[in-house]
Amino acid sequence: MRNKNFLWGSASAAYQIEGEAYNHGKGLSIWDEYSKIDGNTFKNTTGEVAIDFYNKYKEDIALMKEQGLKAYRFSVSWPRILPNGRGEINQEGIDFYNNVIDELIKNNIEPILTIYHWDLPNTLQEEYQGWEDRRIVDDFVNYCEILYKEFGHKVKYWVTLNEQNIFTTLGYVLNLHPPKVSDYQRFVNANHNANLAQAKAISKFRQMNIRGKIGPSFAYSPSYAKSENSLDVLAAEDAQELTDWFWLDVYIKGEYPKIAVELLRKKGIEIPIENGDIDVLKKGKPDFMGLNYYQSFVYKSPNTKGEVYKSNNNTVSQKINKQPTDDYFIQSINKTLEVTDWNWTIDPNGLEVALRRITSRYGIPILITENGLGAIDKLEDNQKIYDDYRIAYIKTHIEAIEKAEELGCNIIGYCTWSFQDLFSWLNGYQKRYGFIYVDRDEKSQKELKRYKKKSFYWYRDIIKNNGVGKR
Ligand code: BG6
Question: What pTM value is reported for the model?
Answer without folding.
Answer: 0.97
